[in-house]
Amino acid sequence: MGAYILRRLLLIIPTLLGIMLINFALVQFVPGGPVEQAIARIQGGGDVFGGFAGTGNDAADTEVTTGGNETYVGARGLPPEFIEELEREFGFDKPPVERFLNMMWNYMRFDFGESYFRSIGVIELIKEKLPVSITLGLWSTLIAYAVSIPLGIRKAVKDGSSFDTWTSGAIIAAYAIPGFLFAILLLVLFAGGSYYQIFPLRGLTSDNFEELSLLGKIGDYFWHITLPVLASTISAFATLTLLTKNSFLDEIKKHYVMTARAKGLSERKVLYGHVFRNAMLIVIAGFPAVFIGVFFGGSLIIETIFSLDGLGRLGFEAAVARDYPIVFGTLFIFGLIGLVVGILSDLMYVLVDPRIDFERREG
Fold first, then answer.
1. Which of 33, 42, 75, 326 is 20 to 30 A off residue 201, Cα-Cα?
2. 1 has a pLDDT exceeding 70
3. Where is the ABC transmembrane type-1 domain (predicted)?
4. What is the mean predicted confidence (pLDDT) over 148-159?
């Protein structure tokens, strides 16, 4: 197992390098880079994309060429020396290959630099936004598992019954509902939209959070996260529930279960003493990957609807503003975490079932 883990760890390096290289190369062809964004802000437009769309004024539609090979939209009236200074500040006075190599060297030393437009370090920004993303990711995953595993077991035991039929229809319907639509429905019903004002409309905590007692802080926290967590969890039930059900059905049909029943063991003893460990292997071992998937993906719309300032909004705003230190810094960190979690998932398989040997399967 040690050799397998070592190979997986060594594989992280070329994989992460490939991820960063592909994204860095794609960015070179995207219009409206950091220099254009800075020019747009100086000219008072606030956004470079109006110039590209042809909706700006004459100043915004004028191009300035510096160094013989760089063209910027909206730079009318700005001296070439100032443009060259912007390029040096953002590092665009160097060739792309040199910029990429410098960036990767810094990232390998976990030096992610500062945001172009916020004057704050990338790590500090991520730490600032983490509580929201951890809240949505952790609680959504825990609730999904807490509901899906008992429901999946019940559906396997009652396979083909009316309970199995109507619950399957319910979870598939829930899976088909877009998360943002369910979030809006929750706001309308329970956050003062048109019916009840039960839950707060925005934020992770109240303004007077620091003045509350410990129990008050806990209650305030759960009061704020109820709706966003429900909205981000609704589509997670279907996959986990059906996976649990099918895993149990596969195990229930095996000979060792028939043998246990023939020995006179109760159905509960057979189900939870023999079947559960084998059936739950793929479900429990996949917990790290599921958590990371919920943690990193699909939270932008939920954060926007409930006015939560998390990593989803941070990444989106950085991409729109062409704030490359944030874009590439978060890409590197999350890519590294995702690859490490893949190894942890394999270790979970071995922990749940020691009979699994990845080294022998690779050989």
1. 326
2. no
3. 130-349
4. 88
Predicted pLDDT of residue 22: 92
The tokens for 310 are: 């998390």
Tally of CB atoms within 10 A around 48 = 28
Return the pLDDT at 105.
92
Contact 134, 310 (CB under 8 A): no
What structural domains and CATH numbers belong to the chain?
32-103 (no CATH), 123-362 (1.10.3720.10)
For residues 25, 31, 34 and 37, what is the CA-based torsion angle, rounded to 10 degrees?
-170
| pLDDT tens track for 48-95 | 444 444 444 444 444 444 444 445 555 555 667 777 777 777 777 788
Contact partners, residue 245, CB within 8 Å, separation at least 6: 152, 153, 155, 156, 159
Rounded to 5°, angle at Cα 226 from 222 and 227: 150
Amino acid identity for residue 116 in this structure: Y
Q: Would you give the distance in Å from CA 94 to the centre of its chain?
A: 33
Q: Residue 206, by phi and psi: left (phi above 0), alpha (psi -120 to 50) or beta?
A: beta
